Amino acid sequence: MEYNENPQVDDRPVSSDDARQRPRRSIWLIVTAAIIVLVVYPLSYGPVQYQISMGRLIALWGVFDVIYAPIEWFANSSEFGEDLVDWYLGVWGA
Question: How far apart are CA 86 and CA 71, in angstroms?
Fold first, then answer.
């Protein structure tokens, strides 16, 4: 058997169009993380507060207090923040 020092897997030249068509995983990871932080995290505040107001998840209140501290800060920082958070909690009945 002959030893080949430079094996070629694919003879096609790699063009810049091919590179642009294939998104990298890291880009999708960043996009997914941004969606979670900017959309899912704030929207989860209402359901969690509703569950707490119904007497569920009371044992985890300390954890939720830390997790949702930025939203509490936003609600306490301005009248607009307070109105927005109060409205959203009202939507959930919390």
Answer: 11
